[in-house]
Structure formats: structure tokens, C-alpha cells
Design a protein that fits this description.
Layout: H1 4-13, H2 17-26, H3 40-48, H4 56-65
Helix pairs in contact: 1-2
């Protein structure tokens, strides 16, 4: 969540890095995202993420910084 790319994209959109990650991952095919929320504010933040419209430049920058794995891989938690 402290990655420079996430911070840049979040700043451009006036959102949090977590919202950028969630918005980006929700766009991926064949990927299931289960966001965690420990407070009502976090639930609201998660709920707003799908409404974030990432630009093609954002998507390219995120894909370059965080390439999707090729093949099977153990699950990770952010």
C-alpha cells in the first residue's frame, strides 16, 4: 500500500491506494477479490472503489509495476 505507483494514481484520483488496488483488481478477468474491512469507514472505502474510473495510463502504470502472475500461485493478502 506504500508503493510509489499506487500513491501517484491515488493522488491523481483523490482516493486511497487501497481503493486503487481494489478498483484495478476488480477489472481483472479470472480473479476473485474479497476485500477485508475492519470498520464502517473501511466498508465505505471499499464500496467506493468500483466507482473509480482508472485511465488507460493508470492501468498501464499499474500493470508495469505489478505484473499479474503467469500460472498458479499461492494466494497473497494485502
Amino acid at each position: 500500500m506504500r508503493d510509489h505507483t499506487l500513491g501517484n494514481v491515488a493522488s491523481r484520483h483523490g482516493t486511497t491506494p487501497a481503493q486503487v488496488v481494489l478498483a484495478w483488481l476488480l477489472r481483472q478477468e479470472d480473479l476473485m477479490v474479497i476485500p477485508k474491512a475492519t470498520s464502517l469507514a473501511h466498508v465505505r472505502e471499499n464500496r467506493a472503489a468500483p466507482d473509480l474510473t482508472l485511465t488507460q495510463a493508470d492501468l498501464t502504470e499499474l500493470a508495469r509495476t505489478f505484473p499479474l502472475p503467469r500460472g498458479t500461485r499461492a494466494l497473497e493478502m494485502l
